[in-house]
């Protein structure tokens, strides 16, 4: 009996040893099969977003086709002296057209606007730092605050389209999609004389809506998501503005396309955010100097 037990233990030990070697080999094979990303690529991932989609999630390293920049500069030459200096890659980071440009830059954007007092506060703080931004408006706010839309425009900011009711476009039919997008562009043109050039889908979502993509093409509007979310939409409470400041401080890198909202907590946090960015040597990109890669 004792001999039988010793034999069983010996067999069990040998089996366990063989299994361990096999497992190690599998792990080594898996490790070898998974390519290591460069530190730059790992860093250049969208931070603190609420994107529901998987498209365009990989950072893009290739440089923008110079012909696109030349074409855009030619189109703008009759209306502005500004030239395209930056482009937005497929991961919505801001990249310099000149790869040797040493400047640290960020793009400021505000969603769900205009709402009233907080909009004015945000505009005044931007003026203080001589910063320009893209304001992505919702139609149901804008139709009640037309003078504020005009004020945003008159202060040199860009008006973007953020849909009428902020509906998730992935679930809308053709008619509802048109109402969400085209009505806003019509309203902006009525107020400013110009149709929006940028569109930010509510929640960043439109991959499943072919009607939206067709409308953007017909309207010559470019989709503009973001690469860094301030999380102001999650934190919300005005007295917790310092948390929004910390989100930006902890996650911003050169090229960040920053998402904020036209709400009280953001108005409370914005002065400290911009002061920090200036102190750290960041420049605020002029939206008129940007082209979108895709």
TrEMBL record:
Matching entries from SUPFAM superfamilies are given as: Glycoside hydrolase/deacetylase
| Comp. bias intervals (Polar residues) | 69-80
Presence of the UniProt keyword Hydrolase in the record: yes
Recorded hits in PROSITE patterns, A to Z, give:
NODB, PROKAR_LIPOPROTEIN
Give an example GO biological process: carbohydrate metabolic process
Reply yes or no: does the keyword Methyltransferase apply: no
Q: Where is the NodB homology domain?
A: 104-285
Q: Report keywords, A-Z.
A: Hydrolase, Metal-binding, Signal
- Any one GO CC term of the record: membrane
Pfam families from the UniProt entry: Polysacc_deac_1
* Region of interest: Disordered: 37-56, 61-80
Q: Which stretches are annotated as coiled coil?
A: none
Q: Name one GO molecular function term.
A: metal ion binding
Q: Which residues form the signal peptide?
A: 1-28
Protein name per Swiss-Prot or TrEMBL? NodB homology domain-containing protein
| Species name | Vulcanibacillus modesticaldus
The beginning of the lineage is: Bacteria, Bacillati, Bacillota, Bacilli, Bacillales
């Amino acid at each position: 009996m004792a001999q039988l037990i010793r034999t069983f233990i010996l067999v069990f030990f040998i089996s366990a040893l063989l299994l361990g070697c096999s497992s190690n080999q599998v792990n080594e094979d898996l490790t070898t099969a998974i390519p290591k990303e460069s530190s730059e690529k790992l860093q250049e991932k969208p931070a603190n977003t609420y994107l529901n989609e998987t498209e365009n999630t990989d950072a893009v390293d290739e440089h923008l086709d110079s012909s696109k920049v030349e074409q855009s500069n030619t189109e703008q030459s009759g209306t502005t002296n500004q030239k395209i200096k930056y482009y937005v890659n497929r991961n919505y980071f801001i990249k310099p057209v000149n790869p040797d440009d040493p400047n640290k830059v960020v793009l400021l954007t505000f969603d769900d606007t205009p709402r009233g007092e907080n909009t004015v506060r945000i505009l005044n703080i931007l003026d203080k730092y001589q910063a320009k931004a893209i304001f992505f408006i919702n139609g149901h706010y804008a139709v009640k605050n037309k003078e504020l839309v005009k004020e945003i425009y008159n202060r040199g900011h860009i008006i973007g389209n953020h849909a009428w009711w902020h509906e998730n476009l992935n679930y809308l039919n053709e008619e509802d999609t048109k109402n969400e997008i085209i009505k806003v562009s019509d309203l902006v043109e009525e107020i400013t004389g110009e149709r929006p050039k940028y569109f930010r889908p509510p929640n960043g979502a439109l991959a499943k809506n072919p009607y939206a993509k067709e409308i953007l093409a017909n309207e010559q509007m470019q989709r503009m998501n973001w690469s860094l979310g301030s999380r102001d939409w999650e934190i919300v409470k005005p007295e917790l503005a310092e948390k929004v400041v910390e989100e930006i401080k902890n996650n911003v890198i050169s090229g960040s396309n920053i998402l904020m909202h036209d709400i009280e907590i953001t108005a409370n946090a914005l002065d400290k955010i911009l002061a920090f960015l200036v102190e750290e040597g960041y420049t605020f990109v002029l939206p008129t100097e940007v082209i979108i890669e895709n």
